[in-house]
Write a structure and sequence with these properties.
Elements lengths: L1 H4 L6 E3 L3 E4 L3 H13 L18 H17 L5 E10 L2 E11 L1 H4 L1 E8 L8 H16 L4 E7 L3 H9 L3 E10 L2 E11 H6 L6 E3 L3 H6 L8
Parallel strand pairs: 5-6
Antiparallel strand pairs: 1-2, 1-9, 2-3, 3-4, 4-5, 6-8, 7-8
Helix pairs in contact: 2-3
GO molecular function: protein N-terminal-serine acetyltransferase activity; protein-N-terminal-alanine acetyltransferase activity
Organism: Glycomyces terrestris
InterPro entries: Acyl_CoA_acyltransferase (IPR016181), GNAT_dom (IPR000182), Ribosomal_N-acetyltransferase (IPR051908)
């Protein structure tokens, strides 16, 4: 079985409405379909790399290749878990968690997107809450990090709702335009104070933890 070789594929995050899991090939096709259908409006680019500025088939292809690269290049010291987000049996988007030297830093970074038909229904908050439970409860993390460009009100709103605090800015470029990327940081106390979703973390056994550079579950 795949999980004999990639045990982190056993990990499942379940909320009231959602399941998050690492994608199989069918999941990748469904995720590509969401990307091809669009993930944001035409007037604002929310990504540092403007991968959505392409024809539908190219967006879908880029999605599949990016997910495969993220999984294939992960190591215990520098890992990525690009979960697909499933609602009522349908893949609706993706929620990524990445970390470098997590065993030492105890911090991880999240990023996400949803297919356009699934915006405005609270899924963004719920899927971020799912991976925060993984970071803090499952892996014993101390901090979760995120970022959003100025003008990305929905992403910033999710961060504020879940207890993140502003953590400075960076300047990024899109073509010849300078943009402000606002960093967000959530510590354990802030997460505990803003928990609004029950999350079940499944499959996080010793073999899966080893894939993420950890020797044992948190105390």
């Amino acid at each position: 079985m795949l999980t004999d070789y990639l045990p982190h594929y056993r990990i499942r995050l379940r909320t009231e409405r959602l399941e998050l899991r690492l994608p199989d090939l069918d999941d990748l096709v469904a995720l590509a379909d969401q990307a091809a259908g669009g993930v944001h409006g035409p007037d604002f680019m929310p990504f540092v790399v403007p991968w959505t500025d392409a024809e539908p088939v190219e967006r879908g292809r880029a999605t599949i290749l990016w997910q495969l690269r993220a999984i294939a290049s992960s190591t215990p010291e520098n890992w990525a878990m690009p979960f697909v987000v499933v609602h009522d049996g349908q893949v609706i988007g993706m929620q990524e968690v990445t970390a470098r030297e997590f065993k030492v830093t105890r911090e991880a970074t999240t990023g996400s997107w949803l297919g356009l038909p699934h915006h405005g229904q609270g899924f963004g908050t719920e899927m971020r809450a799912a991976v925060l439970a993984l970071i803090f409860d499952g892996l014993g993390g101390d901090y979760a990090l995120s970022a959003s460009f100025d003008g990305n009100g929905p992403s910033a709103g999710v961060s504020r709702k879940l207890g993140y605090q502003a953590d400075g800015i960076e300047h990024k470029t899109l073509g010849d335009v300078r943009r402000i990327d606002r960093r967000w940081r959530l510590d354990r106390a802030g997460w505990e104070a803003h928990r609004t979703h029950e999350v079940a973390v499944e499959g996080l056994d010793a073999a899966a933890l080893a894939m993420l550079g950890l020797d044992a579950p948190p105390a």
